[in-house]
Amino acid sequence: MKGNTMKHTVVICGYGPAIGHATALKFGQAGHPVALVARQAQALADGVAALQAQGVQARAFPADLSDVAQVRRVINEARSALGPIGVLHWNAFVDVDGDLLAISVEDLQLGLSLRVVSYIAAVQAAIHDLEATQGAVLSTNGVTAFHGEKVNAFAQDFGILAIPAAAQHKATGLLKQTLARRGVYVGEVVINGFVQGSASTELHAIPATIAPADIAEQFWQLHAARTAHSVVFGSALVQ
Predict the structure, then answer these.
(1) Contact 89/140 with Cβ under 8 angstroms?
(2) What are the tens digits of pLDDT across the range 181-235?
(3) Lower CB count within 10 Å: N or C terminus of the chain?
(4) How far apart are CA 113 and CA 132, in angstroms?
(5) Which residues contact 141 (CB under 8 A, 6 or more apart)?
(6) Is the pTM of this model over 0.85?
């Protein structure tokens, strides 16, 4: 891997049983300490126990990632507990259905707060570590972030996903340009399908075709090569 090869801390913001867990396991088994961040303390405790059982150094940091003050706090706590941050993985989103006339604008505001405002706040809070470690910012996104007739036709009933996803995609592109000057890599996996074991897939009883471990592998490959900055993975939703 280019850059600093020391095993610095990986912070998973928006930890869950699918992508977050698989990414924590992938990086953790490579020797990186992992910090799991989400709201539900019990889910975090279960995740830590599962990771530790597989030899991963993991710690839980409960926080509401829509609250910028808590974002800043948890970045500092992760650094203090596990050491300098080498990877910030942003995996947080709001999963609520509805077209733009049916959705709650408060939920839309929450989605934008999670996927843009708090995302940038986390990068700002971690930037000194990321510079010092020649680290990386990794972003999980979905195909609804893109524009086009086929995408918009699919995404019309997922406004709270699509609009914040598009804003996060733009923010990631801007971060790529901004952080390159500081030696920090930015990579994004855009998921074009439904993920096995994710809360949203199980909630809506949707057939899932993408294994979380395969997404984690995409993040690992992006992080290792540091050449490509965005990859679309899967083909189930929009061709």
Answers:
(1) yes
(2) 999 999 999 999 888 887 666 555 567 789 999 999 999 999 999 999 999 998 7
(3) C
(4) 28
(5) 165, 168, 169, 172, 188, 189, 190, 191
(6) yes
